[in-house]
Amino acid sequence: MTQIVPLSSEKHLNIKLTHSSDYTRFAKEHLIPVLAREIPNLAAEFPIVFVKNTENGQFLPVAMMGIKPDTNLYCQSTEWSSPVTPLGFNNAPLSIAKTPEKDDKVIVCIDEDSPMISQEAGSRLFTDSGEKTEYLTARTNSLLDVAAMHQQTQGMCQYLAQKNLLNPQQLTLKLDNQQQNININGVYVIDDDSFNAISDEDFLELKNKGLLPIIYAHRASLNQLSRLIAKQNQHDSSQ
Question: Which residues touch 126 (CB under 8 Å, ≥6 apart)?
Fold first, then answer.
C-alpha cells in the first residue's frame, strides 16, 4: 500500500528518512523501467529489452529481472544480490509530480506508508524552522536529474523507432522443470538485420548522438538471459 501526498514542512517537519536496500516492493514486477544513461551499467547483469505502451505507442527500455510475470527474481528477499542497481530503486519514498496548474512546475511528494520513514533515526527533511535541509535539497536535485534523464530516454526511444531499429522479438527459453519452452512475447530488440541495414549517414548520426554505446550494451545484455534462466531454475527448485 502507498499513501503518496505532497511533502510539506507543516505536516512532515520532524520526520526522518532512512536508507534501505530492501527492494521487495518490486517483488512482483519482473520488468523494471530503466533510463538510457544507465543501460551500459545495468547490461552487465540484466537483459535490457524494449516494451511498447499499447495506449500511446511509446517505447520504454526495461531490465528483465524475471522470466515469469509477477516474479522479480532479484527482489524476493530483503538482500539485494546484484552489484548494480537501477537508479529508480533509490527514489523511494520521495517522488516528484507535475502540478495541474503549470506543466513546467513540479512538487515533491512522499509515500507516508513507507517503512523508510522514521521519527528517531535517519536524515531530517526540514529544519526546526521549516527550511529544507541539505539532505532534502540533494534528494530533490536527484529526482529532478532522473526526471530529465527520463525525458532523454523517451527521446532516444522515439528516435530509434523512427529509424526502424526496434523490432518485435519472441524470446524462447527452456527451464529445467518444464518440458515445453517458454515463449516471451511483447518485447522489442535492436537485432542484427535492422542494425546492419542502417545507412552510413544514420550510423554517424547514432555516433554523434552518443547512442552507439547504449545500443551495443543493449545487444550484449541479451547474453544475460542465461543468467536469468539459472536464477529461475534455482528459484523453482527452492519452492
Answer: 9, 12, 13, 14, 132, 133, 136
Provide φ and ψ at 5, rounded to 5°: -135, 160
Q: Which three cell numbers stand for residue 101?
A: 496548474
> Measured between alpha carbons, how far is 1 from 136 in angstroms, rounded to an integer?
24
Q: Which residues, in sequence order, are bridge partners of residue 123?
A: 17
Q: What's the pLDDT tens digit per position in 100-137?
A: 766 678 899 999 999 999 999 999 999 999 999 999 99
Residue type, 27: A
Where does residue 218 rank: exposed (0-12), middle (13-18), buried (19+ CB within 10 A)? buried
- The whole-angstrom separation of Cα 190 and Cα 208 is 18
Angle at 5 between CA 2 and CA 9, to 5 degrees: 130
CA distance 106 to 175: 45
User: Which amino acid is it at 130?
Assistant: G
Count the Cβ atoms, other than its own, within 10 Å of residue 234: 11
Q: ∠ CA(124), CA(126), CA(128), 5° rounding? A: 105
SS3 (DSSP) at 48: strand
pLDDT of residue 17: 96
Question: Strand 16-17 to strand 31-33: parallel, antiparallel, or no bridges (unpaired)?
Answer: unpaired
Residue 106, beta-bridge partner list: 98
